[in-house]
Amino acid sequence: MSQATLAPPPAIPAFRRLAALAPFDARADIALRDAARRARRIPIRQELLSEGKPVMDPQILLSGWAARTRILPDGRRQIMGLLLPGDLIGHCYQPEPLATSTIVALTDLEICPAPSAEDFPSLSCAYGISHALDESFLLAQITRLGRMNAYERLADLFLELLERLSMAGLTSEGAFDHPLTQELVADVTGLTPVHVNRVVKTMRQDGEVLWATGYLVLTAPGALASRIGWAPFRVSLSMPQRQ
Amino acid sequence: MSQATLAPPPAIPAFRRLAALAPFDARADIALRDAARRARRIPIRQELLSEGKPVMDPQILLSGWAARTRILPDGRRQIMGLLLPGDLIGHCYQPEPLATSTIVALTDLEICPAPSAEDFPSLSCAYGISHALDESFLLAQITRLGRMNAYERLADLFLELLERLSMAGLTSEGAFDHPLTQELVADVTGLTPVHVNRVVKTMRQDGEVLWATGYLVLTAPGALASRIGWAPFRVSLSMPQRQ
DNA sequence: CGAAGCATTGACTGGGGTCAACTTATGTGG
DNA sequence: CCACATAAGTTGACCCCAGTCAATGCTTCG
């Protein structure tokens, strides 16, 4: 037996995502379950990281949504990206890291300390890929804001969310639960809440989305993706392709 | 002597930047000079990385400017960020990395292989900080595109360039050389070339900038910074503060 | 049941895009 | 060294996407 024992697909969505990025061995799986037992609850609206302040030890987001935000002196707010179950928080490669953005809980959260990559080498691969994906989300966000119109921005964002949530097994048939208000979507997409509302109205009329508070359905994700030229994220040859 | 010998301030701008991020020892300095001797020239407009293709071994940009770009199916182009002397190219933490954006030379470049952090531990700190700064530039870019008007976008970009170039010693008195066309600035800031031209005209009339092809002067960087709420980048407590 | 937050809609405005013409560099070959 | 070609910068006229302002419903939850 030269091959390390792989853990079975995890039941916890957050860990299912990590395993989808790069399989890890049974030892790492045990460490993760153990960490999950020491999970901490974070109430909605609480800040996990504050821009300019030291960064906490690396954590895994077990459940709930969070946002990386920056606020301009005059109050304008931009959300740099959303954090979903299975995402990493506070993984840095520089010494004494300072937070470059504020992370705020959009729902009540569960987070747990991330087993260190040194102790569990089979996790470092998943961590590295997760990190690279994070960067890739930022690039997608830049393209959205810089070169897409309002309709495309919303569609592109929804497709990203669908893709990311599906890695954790949190979607079914193009549908997923979410805690987004139209104001939050506006702060992600660089629009105003009023205009988000108008665009959502159009998307509904087009039959592209069903949006109810807390719940979003993309009726034809594939068609929408090809219409706006959206493509899945790919940051490593070794990352398993989705079907 | 418990302290490692620190190298004197490097003469090459690219290395001066790295040393400014985190001091390294004489051994690393020698390795860098040695790498510089094996520098490669890249002609203008050549691609260093291509989106979706495997990433080359880690390199240091010794001289010249490059851009991280993404092109939408219909030809719209967005520049995610600019690469300046001393910036790192192709440093990834995931296995078998694939490029998430295309990197194209805006001028003739010199690049050299980056001495590995394993062989020269005193460099890993500078690499880590450089990596964190890169992310921080992406966040700045997102805020620019999402929540700033055209005037602020240009001012913010110019201040970022001034700050970054000054770390390599490539500025004097708010002035620096650059290879930017108004079309390139437009692709960075998410505007059209025509509108960039109009905004530059206003900035000239305001006395904020002197822009000639190849050369940019910010007449009062400090005042401009406080007017638009710009702040220097800070990603590590251990990173030396600028004066 | 009241209050606060969120969603929705209309009327109007304006920043930035589009189109097109023209001027000014840059440069390349004869 | 000039002639021509091409790229880059400049300007005006006009338009439209998205912002602003404001009023009105609709939930949700204490």
Brief summary:
Chain A contains seven helices and eleven strands. The first copy, chain A, is an alpha+beta fold and 243 residues long. The first copy, chain A, has a four-stranded antiparallel beta sheet with strand order 1-8-3-6. In chain A, strands 2-7-4-5 form a four-stranded antiparallel beta sheet. A three-stranded antiparallel beta sheet of chain A has the order 9-11-10.
State the main characteristics.
7 helices; DNA-binding; Jelly Rolls; homodimer; four-stranded antiparallel beta sheet; alpha+beta; about 240 residues; WH_DNA-bd_sf (chains A, B)
Write the layout of secondary structure elements.
Two copies of one chain form a homodimer.
Chain A: H1 13-21, H2 26-37, E1 40-42, E2 47-49, E3 59-63, E4 66-71, E5 77-83, E6 88-89, E7 102-105, E8 109-113, H3 121-147, H4 150-167, E9 175-177, H5 182-189, H6 193-206, E10 209-212, E11 215-218, H7 221-228
Antiparallel strand pairs in A: 1-8, 2-7, 3-6, 3-8, 4-5, 4-7, 9-11, 10-11
Helix pairs in contact in A: 1-3, 3-4, 4-7, 5-6
Chain A binds a DNA duplex (30 and 30 nucleotides) through helix 6.
What would you note in describing this structure?
Chains A, B: InterPro entries: cNMP-bd_dom, cNMP-bd_dom_sf, HTH_CRP, RmlC-like_jellyroll, WH-like_DNA-bd_sf, WH_DNA-bd_sf. Chains A, B: Keywords: DNA-binding, Transcription, Transcription regulation. Chains A, B: GO terms for molecular function: DNA binding. The structure is a homodimer of 243-residue chains. By secondary structure, chain A is of the alpha+beta class. Chain A has a single domain, classed as Jelly Rolls. In chain A, α1 (13-21) crosses α3 and α4 crosses α7 (221-228). Helices cover 40% and strands 19% of the residues of chain A. The mean pLDDT of chain A is 94. In chain A, the strands form 3 sheets. Chain A has a 4-stranded antiparallel β-sheet. A 4-stranded antiparallel β-sheet of chain A has the order 2-7-4-5. The relative contact order of chain A is 0.14. At the A-B interface, β5 and α3 of A face β5 and α3 of B. The first copy, chain A, binds a DNA duplex (30 and 30 nucleotides) through residues 149-150, 181-183, 191-195, 197-198, 200-201, 213.
